[in-house]
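User: Run a structure prediction on this.
Assistant: Running it now.
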Amino acid sequence: MTLSPRIAIVDDDPLLRELLVDYLTGQGYSALPCDGGVSLRTLFASSPPDCVILDLVMPDEDGLSVLRWLRAGSDVPLIMLTSSDALADRIVGLELGADDYVAKPADLRELLARVRSVLRRHRPAAATPAEDGEPWFGRWRLDRARRRLVDNRGEILPITGAEFGLLCAFAEHPNMTLSRDRLLKLSGTDPGEVFDRAIDLRITRLRRKIEPVPGDPTVIRTVRGHGGGYQYLPSNGPNHGR
């Protein structure tokens, strides 16, 4: 029997929580209401959900603080709920590791589509029988079976679902210049789902994790001119960039 994905809904508005719980339950999900960061932490301590929908504006603890806490120890897919004019909050949220956002007042069908999208991107990849063919990003090997980066000492570097999708896209197109739209499509994201600079923010986060000198990248290079884009330069193994 396949269990329904468990979606945590974190919002201080009880009417909105009830609306989202009823709607997502009717769509076949197990919806778990949380009135703030404390109740979400309690939920994670007992049984972590498969996805989090997080309001960024809450009275006791703002959503960005909750997002920082989540990303310190989890790569669970996360969708921000933001006000329609909160561009700065969206940018900060994406930099902190959110996978997507929906502007309030949320259209339920749009929210459902984004939930399905982040869950699809985060679905575990099929296990691979050997490590030899896995690509290296600097000193980190992409472990596609476990959706993470690992070095030759066994140190693990967790990545978000959006970051995993990007790394897989680069791994499948080494030394090729990929435009932002192309990267969004290859990583499993419809370019219409996020504003056009979201890919830049995700690349910036990845560089902080994998580049020896994030300000002077040698693994994921920026390509100027003709619309611009990014290029993955494969390494030969864990000694790259040392």
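Residues 125-131 have pLDDT under 50 and may be disordered.
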